[in-house]
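FIELD: query
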Amino acid sequence: MSTAERRQTSSSRNVLLNRLSMSQKYAVNSLTQYGYQFAFSRNTDEGNLAILMCGNNIATVDAQGDIDTSPQITIRD
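FIELD: result
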């Protein structure tokens, strides 16, 4: 699958954002004020994990809305 095929359209991105908890939505909104953009979400054993990017910086928001601006994750190109 090519990179272009994996990218989300704005409508599919909105669907993913709607699946986040209220706490996550609040935290994601807070991060967008600092230039972060929602990239994607992942299901984990602890619940949805929202991944946001700002240039080369990565931030995650867990199901409880806790923000981690130094996550130990690797993003594929």
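FIELD: remark
Confidence is low (pLDDT under 50) at residues 1-6.
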